[in-house]
Amino acid sequence: MRAHLAVLPPLLALAGALLVALSTPLRGRGARPLAVGTAAAAAVAALAGIADVLARGPQRYALGGWPPPWGIEAVLDPLSAFTMTVVAVVATVALAAGPGVATVYGRSSSTFYALALVAVAGFLGIVASGDLFNVFVFLEIAAIASYALVASGGGPGLLAGFRYLVLGTVGASFYLLGVGLLYVLTGSLNMADLAARLPALSDSPLFAAGVAFVVVGLAIKMGLFPLHGWLPDAYTHAPPPVASLLAAVATKAAAYALARTVLYVLRPDELPVGTVLAWVGAASILAGGVLAVRQTDARRLLAYSSVSQMGYIALGLGLANAPALAGAYLHVLNHAMMKAALFLGVGALAMQGRGPALSALRFGRRASVVGITMVVAALSMVGVPPAGGFFSKWYLLQGAVDATQPGLVAVILIGSVLALAYCYRLTEAVWFPPADEAPAPQTPRAVRLGLVTLAAGIVLVGLVSGVLVERLLLPAAAPALR
Amino acid sequence: VTPSVLPGLALLPAGLAVGLIPLLRARPVLRDAVSVVAALGQTTIVLLLLPQALAGAAPVWQWLPLAPAVPLELRADPFGTLFALVASTLWVLTTIYSIGYMRAQQERHQTRYFACFALCLFATVGIAFAGNLLTFFVFFELLTVAAYPLVIHSGTAEARAAGRMYLAYTLTGGAALLGAVAWTQALAGRLDFAPGGILPAAAAPAALWGLLALFVVGCGVKAALVPLHAWLPVAMIAPTPVSALLHAVAVVKAGVFGLVRVTGFVFGPELLTDLGGAGALAALAVVTIVGGSLAALAQDNLKRLLAFSTVSQLSYIVLGAALGTPEAVTGGVLHIAAHAVLKITLFFCAGSLYVAAHVERVSDMRGVGRRMPLTMGAFTVAAVLLAGLPPGAAFASKWRLLSGAADSEAWVAVAALLASTLLNLAYFMPIVVRAFTGEPATAIVEAPATMLVPLLVTAAAGLALGLAPDHVLSILSLAGRTAASVTSP
Question: Using CA atoms, how far apart are residues A36 and B416, in angstroms rounded to an integer?
């Protein structure tokens, strides 16, 4: 088993998807435990991957025994092991806790779980892959499942899903075009092989065009401003269990692909990619934050918050010094947990109450567990220690200060204030006493358990972030440093 | 520097209380007993640290790395020990007072109240003992958040609006402080507090000015420096014991404590004076001292009046730190303790008046002193002593501030201190006169003993601290040692 850890997580998720799909005749019975079980198995495999990388160092895995650069290669290094763990663990919690699966899908819940596992397999595949074209394949696997998931609730979700499909395909096509240009230039698709060949060819205009297409394509997938057009509708109109899964992990896989291709393979030192990325990230932080503050629908507020928070990750990748990269990677974890928690909470409350409008989310003290865990996630978003979100911002700030970029320092801090404004609106809405005293139905136990797990995780990651950064994230960043 | 678990252990009583109090929701007596025991426990541990702090041993406790090479570090140096002592001992009295107040008022959500109170004290001890800027920031932000439920305790629209304003001010200040911490790391390459400062004198003046501005905004919001003070009078909507301990001792003092740490242990008086930042900070303090007192004159609501008085008095401490001479720093640090005991007495009295006579406004206080002689007696003593008349606690601190200001020929500061004394008397004396003249409208009796005893104790402590500042928990020695370490490291 140990030799296959690099590919085990995506394979487990894919096998799970198949099993859940085969269970369709059972009319949804057993779909949830099967899906959660395989996702959890993928998470365990990913965690084992981290342990293995720490013990033995990075490993390359030739699929089917075909040696690279001809065969397809998977890579297990600190960055991929870490990101796979984030995706698999948070996806497990989101699948286990996703509110309202029965309400939305009824007896066809196996459709939801099968599609969700295909998407998760796609995200994990993006991370595991050591081959640029293979990244595209998994991007599409994940994306097609995601389009279907967003549209699966019907209603406005259909249009949102279609819009997501159009823009997502544009993004994927840009990426593919970029990879094609690079293939023309080098004759290779293997990441390690490309990284070795490209330095000699980097003054070619093909290289510049290839890099530009790859970066723009992945920026669309990440939902960075001003390429975020698909994201707010998709997250707003997707059914609650879909929103909490996709909002947590979908954009993170794209962010990983961007980091991996640009910083570890293409390394376009001569091009201003880093500067552009940092400032696009800054624009995302500000625009997403300002737009989030103005929303009256809790889901849309959270969606714009994602635009803002992905901006932090892009900013860190753009700065690309050691603390900034550690901060960006740590924020992948933190944002996945806090966004999953907030979407779970909002989804659960909206389903028990009068919908997701901020003015209708008034639960007061009846929100209890949901309300408290949402406050923890919101504090992490604002960056209040000891919640994890503070520590990612701390490293990003250090990165910006080290790069003597006072403008970016200011943006990071202003982003915190914007996060305070929109998180305050959300949590105050939840904690505002309801207009009537009619008892609300109890939040399902699975949702409460998931929320408590995420809230505990947020604080725990904050407390151990120093160790995490030193042992895993700084080594992950090291190969990307100039 | 000696490794010791005691500074870390000081967090334990309050931390345990935060966990236990919600579990004892159904048993109010036991729940309140937990608060008292935790407060006593915390005080005991801090007292155990006192001899070592006085001997210059500075016990240090380190735990998890918050970031590579920056551990969570708690260090009991003289300055931190002084703040922790003041906060812990006053927590004991405030807990007793709170129990009386909350029961007399039949307040709702008492469990949440006592749990949040314990969390605030947890954070305050963390702030006091924080050995580096990152640790300080962690507890500073925790205190901000923990105090929020206490501000909005009543749950009314007005309280929520006050809470929103409080969070907007303090967390925005927190963002500025975070920027300052990150910048310090870049400039100095370290984050620990060292007497005399850690910033290199060779750094560009523009960078140092920017850094100072961020620090002043970051800590100045909690320290209620004009023009960052607006949240404090509004936050007086909170229950009176909250105003007493948090808005006179813990939260606002965390702000000035932070400013003293910044001037004395990050910049250092020498660098700050060379930069010209000391003058700017002193000017800000003078404006706040005079402006706060003038605003207090115009208030009719007693708690708002006390809040503006707090705004003014806090800047005595900032002024001492800015002047940077041994005398002035000693006076400023001593004023942390002096203002704490006297202002908490005044707030305790305001709460007793509210509970016993439902009096909130100065204009309604006619004759209450004849029905509540002990309460108003304590009020009068505290008011007179806070104005700086001998032999009170504030005289001990103000005298040193004055002589420090005179030594450095800061005549504007001298004038401001003297003017503030007169203004203090001008807004306190009408209250005292009104309270002891005329007949009160209804039959009124003194507040319950749980409220009366704490306020008499703090009034007496205010007097004792003036008469023998070194025999009350060695406060003067701690202040003197702090000043000596900062000014001649």
Answer: 69
